[in-house]
Amino acid sequence: MTETPQPRRARAEIDLGALRANVRTLRARVDPHVQIMAVVKADAYGHGALRCARAAVEAGATWVGTATPQEALALRAAGLLDVRIMCWLWTPGDPWAEGIEAGLDMSVSGLWALTEVVEAARETGRRARIQLKADTGLGRNGCQPADWPELVTEALKAEAQGLVKVTGLWSHFACADEPGHPSIAAQLDVFRTMLDFAEKAGVEPEVRHIANSPATLTLPEAHFDLVRPGIAMYGVSPAPEVGTSAELGLRPVMSLKASVALVKDVPGGHGVSYGHHYVTSGDTTLGLVPLGYADGIPRHASGRGPVLVDGRVRTVAGRVAMDQFVVDLGGDRPAPGTEAVLFGPGDRGEPTAQDWADAADTIAYEIVTRIGARVPRVYLGE
Ligand SMILES: *Cc1c(COP(=O)(O)O)cnc(C)c1O
Predict the structure, then answer these.
(1) What is the mean pLDDT of residues 182-194?
(2) In-domain check, residue 249
(3) Which of 77, 252, 267, 380 is spaced 20 to 30 A from 115 at the CA atom?
(4) Binding-site residue ranges for substrate
(5) Out of 41, 133, 165, 257, which one is annotated catalytic?
(6) CA distance 73 to 238
(7) CA distance 166 to 153
(8) Is residue 306 a part of any domain in this protein?
């Protein structure tokens, strides 16, 4: 285990030991034949894609998933070679040929994408690995049931010509984070029907998959051959009603910390930060935390975000600015440089990413994912 480094302005500590443990916990919750795809899109939800992908593979993930082909290609270029990588958010003109050369599994949701990937396969002289995506009810990406027969038929024609191999059939849930939501069973029904059609037509997929984190945790009948956890791998619950991290046996991976930059005495009636939305109620002390919305601290959490400083949880006083915000220390005088913990696992009295999500009317996914590039990531447990 690496020593915790000295505090700087701010840092996001990424506990790779916790990430590995979370992957093992997820592994233990699925049948032994079910593979794990570690979802590391958006720089691993702000945690660092390459290191998180490597840690997940060490802990038993056999696939890695990204949204864009650029994210997937960057992982291959960085040397992540010993694992399948799938990416699903393609835009016309994207680098299909590079994807083929890199051995990516490339999602195809419609005929335009099939046309482009077939063209790239002709150019490169190599067979493309494609996974057909079904829109089973999410209404976002994926092929509608009415268009599925044509997409499957055209993909099989390209497969017969040796241009593609259909390696997967897959879909995505709309409401898996609301256990019992009627759309869940409805989507599973549609998925089974679409799988059945494709398999009867002659597709022999290596993997069929639909489960994100909440479905991995709550819906064994949705596991099929592979599950695609993202947020759970980072130790954050997909939604409070699915359970807390602790209840799910998961440990939050990211801790966001800063060094208090200034502590000072102010009189009562003093306005604090832009707009003076906070005014001190009497003589007090203020602490300056050098993190702001440029670092991903939601401005919407102005007056509400929680921060552990000097043994107590304080509240953001007034507006979150671009680079800094203030907490009212209520007369306490910790030394400048004292650690301020915005969020972490929560077992040392510090707030969690979910607490910040509640303060900012959003979801914990957005809190961790938006932590900005200006905040250095410090890796523990490499
Ligand atoms: C982001 C994403 C996931 C992971 O979702 P979580 O809720 O974080 O587990 C899985 N599949 C697809 C297609 C995604 O876009």
Answers:
(1) 98
(2) no
(3) 77
(4) 140, 322
(5) 41
(6) 27
(7) 11
(8) yes
List pLDDT tens digits, range 241-288.
999 999 999 999 999 999 999 999 999 999 999 999 999 999 999 999
- The catalytic position among 133, 274, 278, 379 is 274
Within 6 Å (CB) of ligand 1, which residues are found? 39, 41, 88, 172, 212-213, 228-232, 238
What is the tally of helices (H) and strands (E) in the chain? 12, 19
Give the separation between CA 377 and CA 382, rounded to whole angstroms. 13
Q: Which CATH number is 219's domain given?
A: 3.20.20.10
- 230 and 263 together in one domain: no
Is 240 part of a structural domain of the chain?
no
Query: How many angstroms does the Cα of residue 180 sit away from the middle of ligand 1?
Result: 19
pLDDT tens for residues 122-177?
Answer: 999 999 999 999 999 999 999 999 999 999 999 999 999 999 999 999 999 999 99
Q: 300: which 2 tokens?
A: 């919407």
Q: How many CA atoms lie within 13 A of 105 on its CB side?
A: 21
- Number of structural domains (the chain) is 2
Atom of ligand 1 nearest to the CA of 229: 9
CB 132 within 8 A of CB 94: no
Given a contact cutoff of 8 angstroms between Cβ atoms, the answer to whether 210 and 216 are in contact is: no
Catalytic (active site) residue 41:
yes
Instruction: Supply the residue whose CA is at minimum distance from atom 13 of ligand 1.
Output: 172
Q: Assess whether 264 carries a catalytic annotation.
A: no
List C-alpha distances in Å: 146 to 50, 173, 242, 307: 38, 19, 33, 51
What's the rounded Cα separation, in Å, for the pair 10 and 372? 11
**pLDDT given at position 8:** 82
Q: What is the pTM of this model?
A: 0.97
Query: Coil, helix or strand for 182?
Result: helix
3-state secondary structure of 295: helix
Which residues contact residue 140 at a Cβ distance below 8 angstroms, ignoring those fewer than 6 apart?
172
The residue range of the domain holding 66 is: 16-234
In 10 A of CB 260, how many CB atoms? 22
CATH of the domain at 269: 2.40.37.10
Shortest-distance atom of ligand 1 to CA 231:
8
CA of 230 to the centre of ligand 1 (A): 5
